[in-house]
Design brief:
Order of helices and strands: EHEEEEHEHEHEEEHEHEHEEHH
CATH architecture of the largest domain: 3-Layer(aba) Sandwich
Distance between the termini: 24 Å
Number of domains: 2
CATH class of the largest domain: Alpha Beta
CATH superfamily of the largest domain: Periplasmic binding protein-like II
Strand content: 15-25%
Largest sheet: 6 strands, mixed
CATH topology of the largest domain: D-Maltodextrin-Binding Protein, domain 2
């Protein structure tokens, strides 16, 4: 669980009741607002993934259904979050409207599998780029850089980052067996660390004063903050790095390069910023810039 500018996931939070069906047909009416302007003039080289999808007039996207602010399926079937909005931008550039996106629930453990089996056309699901995963899929991006962070009470100004924890004699909560619970030991003594099985219990402990801070990837923390806006805040000083990518079939470099072009265009025309501000930006205080894109391989 590493990262750098703002968030990540694997989230154990916010409504298991919201994680519905493994696969669901989505529509713009069911996905949290109007989609981006569709490129009606889109034309692609014959035989490419882009041409196939454009001709079909539909695209299947793998994402999380239980990740507040990034990929969340509501009780009404609506799809919401930053990953969802970026997927809509890619679809629009393919000439496909948001109501023609078929959303497939894609938990962390199945992301490579659904790409390899052709169950989705691409995966955007708080999907960290790393060498092991890149053996099985081609990554476009990163489109976002996240990182481990701290959540504190809204009136706490003593904790300004991990380096301030010892001097503040702060008790910190995380989840047993998680990478963040190990990483935070670089900054606090074992006696200062409180562990639970889920982050919702850490939030309760912070609320009632048992601990002074909660630590994990900032994606998870922002979700918790969004549910407790009057009580909690994100410190906003990530101290690990993890780049989020968009997974496509291994070796489909043309599709990867198309996604890169689409991301650059979105950054230039403001649609990337809008996607952020409409979702995670409702909680996060800063708007990220599109990270430097990697090499399609």
């Amino acid at each position: 669980m590493r990262l750098s500018k703002v968030l990540r996931a694997g989230a154990v939070m916010a409504a298991a009741s919201l994680a519905l069906a493994a696969c669901g047909g989505g529509s713009d009416n069911n996905s949290g607002g109007s989609g981006p302007s569709v490129n009606q003039e889109a034309k692609f080289e014959s035989g490419t993934t882009m041409a196939k999808l454009n001709q079909a007039g539909a695209v299947t996207v793998g994402t999380k259904f239980d990740q507040p602010l990034f990929g969340l399926k509501g009780l009404d079937g609506s799809m919401q979050g930053f990953d969802v909005e970026i997927a809509k931008i890619i679809a629009a550039e393919l000439g496909i409207s948001a109501d023609k996106i078929n959303w497939v629930e894609t938990p962390s453990a199945t992301r490579e599998e659904v790409i390899e089996q052709g169950k989705v056309d691409f995966v955007i699901a708080t999907y960290t780029i790393n060498d092991e995963r890149a053996k099985r899929v081609t990554f476009a991006g990163p489109y976002y850089q996240a990182g481990q962070d701290l959540m504190v009470k809204k009136d706490n100004n003593a904790i300004t980052g991990p380096e301030s924890l010892k001097s503040a004699n702060a008790k910190v909560c995380s989840v047993t067996g998680s990478t963040p619970s190990e990483e935070i030991l670089k900054y606090v003594d074992k006696e200062q660390l409180v562990l639970f099985d889920v982050y919702s219990k850490c939030a309760d402990a912070l609320r009632n004063g048992q601990v002074d801070a909660v630590t994990t990837d900032n994606v998870i923390l922002l979700g918790l903050v969004s549910e407790n806006k009057d009580q909690f805040k994100l410190v906003g000083k990530p101290f690990t790095e993890e780049p989020y990518g968009i997974g496509v079939k291994k070796g489909d470099t043309k599709f990867c390069e198309f996604i890169h072009d689409t991301l650059r265009k979105a950054a230039e025309d403001g649609s990337y910023e809008k996607a952020w501000k409409d979702t995670a930006g409702t909680v996060a205080e800063t708007t990220p810039e599109l990270p430097e894109l990697g090499t399609c391989a």
